[in-house]
Backbone:
């Protein structure tokens, strides 16, 4: 015997598919307005020009900072509490949105600057820059072994439960 689908269910299904298509069309056709360059600057308490800069990753206090204009990378990392012990400072990335060039990514070797004190290695940041401080390979390897350790503990527990069940069923 064939089961009939009620008309109301078909109507709801059609409405759902229609709304899903509208959402997909809206996401594909949305155009983000270009950023107002003047809105990227703010005045501080001492009438100094402040710019927003993002810093992510292996620093003590990641987030967005309003820093004085012409702040360099070392100063921003210092504002964020400095790098953590697992930070890979030999490859810090700066992601910059430049209207003439599009998105540009710079790799900065902060370790080399700390070894040589060559100020040419440290760039001045621009409004809207995002700084990414990655973790070291050692950090990721130690996280992997930590995961394996927890997995082995779980496997031991499962093994002991199975052993206890076998013992009790004898």
Residues:
């Amino acid at each position: 015997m064939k089961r009939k689908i009620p008309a109301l269910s078909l109507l709801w299904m059609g409405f759902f598919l229609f709304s899903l298509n509208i959402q997909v069309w809206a996401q594909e056709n949305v155009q983000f307005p270009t950023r107002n360059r003047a809105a990227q600057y703010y005045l501080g308490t001492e009438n100094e020009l402040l710019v927003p800069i993002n810093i992510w990753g292996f620093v003590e206090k990641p987030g967005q900072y309003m820093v004085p204009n012409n702040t360099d990378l070392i100063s921003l990392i210092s504002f964020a509490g400095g790098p953590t012990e697992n930070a890979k400072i030999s490859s810090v990335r700066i992601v910059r949105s430049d209207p003439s060039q599009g998105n540009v990514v710079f790799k900065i070797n902060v370790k080399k600057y700390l070894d040589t004190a060559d100020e040419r290695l440290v760039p001045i940041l621009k409004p809207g820059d995002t700084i990414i401080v990655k973790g070291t390979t050692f950090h990721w390897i130690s996280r992997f072994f930590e995961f394996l350790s927890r997995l082995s503990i779980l496997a031991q527990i499962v093994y002991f439960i199975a052993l206890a069940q076998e013992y009790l069923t004898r």
Observations:
- The mean pLDDT is 80.
